[in-house]
Design goal:
The complex is a heterodimer of chains A (212) and B (443).
Chain A (H helix, E strand, L loop, with lengths): L1 H10 L10 H10 L5 E4 L7 H10 L6 E5 L4 H9 L4 E4 L4 H13 L9 E4 L2 E4 L4 E4 L2 E3 L3 H11 L5 E2 L1 H9 L9 H13 L8 E4 L3 E4 L2
Parallel strand pairs in A: 1-2, 2-3
Antiparallel strand pairs in A: 4-5, 5-6, 6-7, 8-10, 9-10
Chain B lengths: L1 H51 L1 H14 L5 E6 L5 E4 L1 E3 L5 E6 L4 E3 L10 E9 L2 E8 L1 H51 L14 H50 L5 H31 L8 E4 H18 L3 E5 L5 E4 L1 H18 L5 E9 L2 E7 L32 H11 L5 E4 L4 E7 L1
Parallel strand pairs in B: 9-11
Antiparallel strand pairs in B: 1-2, 1-7, 3-5, 4-6, 6-7, 8-10, 11-12, 12-14, 13-14
Helix pairs in contact in B: 1-2, 1-3, 4-5, 5-8, 6-7, 7-8
Classes of the chains: A alpha+beta (212), B alpha+beta (443).
Chain lengths: 212, 443
């Protein structure tokens, strides 16, 4: 499990230190500066939750994501209380892990004023909320606008259903309905169907990706 | 408390009845003795007349009159011609046998007796060959004695009644407090405080019951702890390999060199894998709820606003499936509950409606004010559920024959039922003719 994640992250261009002992991890984390911690709750020596608490108590503020097999709401609350920035329940999509790492890593720069997005021949005005592709006006519903904005801000990055539910609908639980699928297919009908090149692709079992 | 008052009432009734019986018996007894007494007096006087002659009789009557100045006893000697010879009273006419004489009507008293003038006399007349001897005793004596009895009984009864009511109320209060403690503890345990126990040191039936209840609570807590442990273990044992499997497959779905057909196949395998873990999560969640391990986040929230959000969430999917989704919701509706869980419940009901209506249908979500709270209804015009199957439909894993060819694990309605149970409400399924009407009340 840890090896797969390490390989995947390295393939994305990150450099990764992979430790399986919680006490070693604690030492390592205090000795060297990291951009992000990824802790499993089940570790040898010291569990992930205690590890995170110890680090937070030692004023180490590095963003942290907890990975766990325990998915109950109170487990999640416990994780966030211990100082985790995010909490992921196994099994999760690797693409989702990447998206969450992106979100956490991007946090400080979010304040930069962007008023328009341009990807390929698609143009989205964030102030008037109007979209044009190849100069042709596209009429968007409010959720479709939010969805397109989310995709255009992350070109080439796979977005999972869960990520979209959180980002576009503000839902932190899975409503088990086809709301994401429906909106993505409507959006696709508007921005892709009349044109030659499709930007929005479905990756079965993983999510969607916007590639201009 | 009602039982205590009832016991006191029965006790008071029995005591009054006993008093009445004693009164009747005592006054009968006293009257009998009084009659016997006057008969004896007359007999004595007749004996004196027989053996001592009229002179001795007169002396004895005078002595008797002097002794009874209060008029408690009277005696008279009347000669054979009907003339009164001696005595402290005169009857209206001489007679033999028992009679009750009333002063003024049947007799006159000689002189005024001291004290209260008696009104009635039990009298006895004895005819001898030398005239009549008539004696009498004041009937007031019977009345006085029975009055003493009545007063005594009344006081005794009053005091006993007050004491018994006090005792009954005390016992009832004490038991009520003890039973309230049971209720409080059981409610709190039901709400998730599994370590609470009933504190009761009584050595009676309630005390014994407390011991039994506590014993059961200990077993319940152990069972819940076991569920917690098992669900954590199973969660780990199942999630870890699923997670590895996913990590193994996913890179190939994302890799550009994977042939498109294979990529789609692998993608659908991942979807199935997610389906397994979603079903597994739902089972775990349901078990934890049923075991009271899911703490409710109860806050005031606007259920009307929530319904509008949910409709917005579902409208597009409904439209794509050809359904008409309509709502009737007031501008605001303040409710109490766990907003996320209620949202989940309404979503499940609406999703069920959309999923089980294979033909385009009309789905309606409404919130209406009722005296008990807000009535939330989800109705559809689809195939509905036959009346005989409606209870079964809310059980775990039950998928009615009619829905075999639609997706779902059969957990949706049982999750709704459980969420509503935690909110002290329940799901009511009925016929929408045509279709299904699913309703619950939230206050």
């Amino acid at each position: 499990m840890g090896d797969y994640i390490r390989k995947g992250l390295v393939a994305e261009g990150h450099s990764v230190d992979h430790l399986i002992d919680g006490r070693e991890a604690l030492t390592q984390a205090t000795l060297q500066p990291y951009d992000l911690f990824l802790f499993d709750r089940m570790l040898l020596g010291l569990d992930g939750l205690s590890l995170l608490k110890s680090l937070r108590a030692a004023q180490v503020a590095t963003p942290a994501i907890l990975l766990t097999a325990m998915g109950a709401v109170d487990d999640r609350v416990a994780g966030l209380r211990a100082g985790a920035d995010d909490y992921m329940v196994k099994p999760f999509a690797f693409a989702e892990l990447l998206a969450r790492i992106d979100t956490i890593a991007r946090r400080p720069n979010l304040r930069a004023e962007v008023t328009e997005l341009r990807q390929g021949d698609l143009h989205l005005d964030l102030l008037t909320r109007e979209a044009h592709r190849a100069g042709i006006y596209i009429d968007l519903q409010p959720r479709e606008f939010l969805l397109l904005k989310h995709f255009m801000e992350r070109p080439g990055r796979v977005q999972t259903r869960t990520i979209l539910l959180e980002a576009v609908w503000g839902l932190h639980f899975d409503p088990k309905t086809s709301v994401v699928e429906t909106h993505v297919s409507r959006l696709r009908a508007k921005i892709d169907k009349p044109f030659e090149k499709a930007y929005l692709t479905t990756l079965h079992g993983v999510g969607y990706v916007f590639r201009p | 408390m009602r039982f205590a008052l009832m016991i006191s009432g029965v006790f008071a009734g029995a005591a009054v009845l006993a008093g009445a019986i004693a009164y009747v018996l005592l006054s009968g007894e006293l009257t009998g003795r009084l009659r016997q007494d006057v008969e004896n007096m007359a007999g004595n006087l007749a004996y004196t007349l027989q053996n001592g002659g009229p002179q001795d009789l007169l002396e004895q009557i005078d002595a008797l009159s002097a002794n009874a100045r209060d008029g408690s006893a009277v005696a008279a000697y009347i000669d054979p011609q009907g003339l009164k010879i001696a005595g402290n009273f005169s009857p209206d006419h001489p007679f033999a046998g028992h009679r009750v004489l009333r002063v003024g009507r049947d007799m006159t008293l000689a002189g005024t007796p001291t004290g209260v003038v008696p009104t009635d006399y039990f009298a006895y007349g004895l005819q001898t060959n030398q005239g009549w001897i008539i004696t009498g005793r004041d009937a007031e004596w019977v009345a006085e004695n029975t009055e003493v009895l009545l007063q005594g009984t009344a006081w005794g009864l009053g005091v006993a009644l007050i004491l018994s009511i006090m005792l009954a109320v005390f016992i009832a209060r004490r038991n009520e407090t003890r039973i309230e403690r049971f209720e409080d503890v059981l409610l709190a345990v039901g709400a998730g405080a599994h370590d609470l126990r009933v504190v009761d040191h009584g050595h009676d039936d309630i005390g014994r019951l407390a011991g039994r209840v506590n014993h059961t609570l200990v077993q319940l807590e152990a069972g819940i702890a076991a569920i917690r442990q098992v669900s954590t273990d199973v969660a780990h044992d199942l999630r870890a390999p699923l997670a590895r499997l996913r990590m193994r497959l996913e890179p190939h779905v994302l890799a550009d060199q994977t042939p498109v057909g294979l990529r789609d196949d692998l993608g659908r395998a991942l979807e199935d894998l997610d389906g397994i873990s979603a079903t597994f999560d739902a089972i775990l969640r349901l078990s934890r709820m049923q075991a009271g391990l899911v703490p409710l986040q109860v806050h005031a929230f606007d259920i009307a606003a929530l319904c509008r959000e949910l409709v917005e969430l579902l409208a597009a999917s409904a439209e794509d499936a050809g359904h008409r989704f309509t709502t009737d919701v007031p501008p605001t509706a303040a409710a109490y509950g766990d907003r996320d869980l209620i949202a989940q419940a309404i979503l499940n009901l609406a999703d069920n409606a959309m999923r089980h209506c294979t033909m385009p249908a009309e789905i309606h979500l409404s919130v209406k004010a009722r005296s008990e709270g807000w009535l939330v209804s989800v109705t559809d015009t689809g195939p509905g559920i036959p009346a005989a199957d409606r209870t079964r439909a809310t059980e775990r894993f039950v998928r009615l024959d009619a829905s075999r060819n639609t997706s779902g694990a059969g957990l949706g309605l049982s999750l709704v039922t459980e969420i509503l149970r935690l909110h002290g409400s329940k799901l009511h399924l009925s016929d929408n003719s045509p279709g299904l009407r699913a309703e619950f009340v939230l206050n």
